[in-house]
Amino acid sequence: MTTGYVPRTEFCGCDTSWANAGKRPANANHGQVGYNEATTQLEVYDAIAGAWRTVASNLVGTAWFANSATGADTNVGTSAATAFKTITAAVAAAAAGDTIYITGSFTEAVTVTKIGLSIIGSGTGPHRATWTAANDAVCLTLNASDCQVANIRFRPPAYSSGAPAAIVLNNAPYARIVGNRFQGQTGSNFAIFCMLGAAYSSDDVLIAGNEFIYLNNITTVYGSAIESTAADGGYSCSSWQIVNNIFDAPVEGVNINGRGCLIAGNIFRDKGLLAAGTMGTVTGSAGSKLMIDLSGTNADCNCVVGNWLGGAYSSTLYLKGGSNDEWYGNFTVSTTATLTNGAGMTLTPTT
Fold this sequence. Notes:
With about 350 residues, the protein is mainly beta. The protein folds into 2 domains: about 10-55, no CATH class; about 135-350. The protein is about 5% helix and about 35% strand. It has helices spanning about 10, 15-20, 85-95, and strands spanning about 35, 40-45, 50-55, 65, 100-105, 105, 110, 120, 130, 140, 150, 155, 165-170, 175-180, 180-185, 190-195, 205-210, 210-215, 225-230, 235-240, 240-245, 245-250, 250-255, 260, 260-265, 265-270, 270-275, 280, 290-295, 305, 310, 310-315, 320, 325-330, 330, 335, 350. Strand 1 (about 35) and strand 2 form a beta hairpin.
């Protein structure tokens, strides 16, 4: 896929020499996102595999623009020069299958109900797209299928009640969340939260090439990277792919009622930057939080392979879904004498 690869620097957030050279950079960063003009695909760099992966379906339809610094919601929004000021205005103007490019800093709560809508961060350096919302709010609620979210720096809202998050999957099957950074602030609760129940369906979700950092602010009670509702009622997160992400010492890593999910090529670090500005161990210190928890009603048949699993490899931090789960080819520094999760939790220890 190298032929014809010319990243569009207005939203890739990368070195501009990349576009001038007409090829991918030699030393790409994990999770770096670019756009392949030849195939109209978004791609993300997987530092673990040392390769570029296609992670999103074709970007088609009308392009819309939002710029918090130079835009105006009275504009037409169909070019960078006529950008809207808010994401809300761009979403309202867009139709199913359209793409919205956002530049600047946004504090908004937005709900998407249009199938196949893509929201892509644009700009570089201090002008790169950042997005947060008021306390106890949700930056982006996806209530439609086949939506894509890429290359945005989210600051998950602070918690005092409810389920505030950067992204909530409401009815969002086939969502693609790619190449974003979720950086916690004081009191941040959830980065990505999935609703489970009779009224909700969010299967076949791809979460790839993202970074989850500083989701441990102030206390060890709040700070979950990927979470689904605890009272699952027998409903599952089915056929999810959580691949090539970095979980940098969250209070909780992945806690979903997983059925037939793939968790591969991720880095789960139990040590990292703490709220006091020091470095240390966070995950699990709240007493009930795990790095990976796939358990729940009807949870089973998950594949957990090729991950770096920080901390002691036991059910204290890692909990499988069911007896048909397959955990293999993972790496860790520390193991316990007995894996209380039972069979299917093999790994390759390192020294």
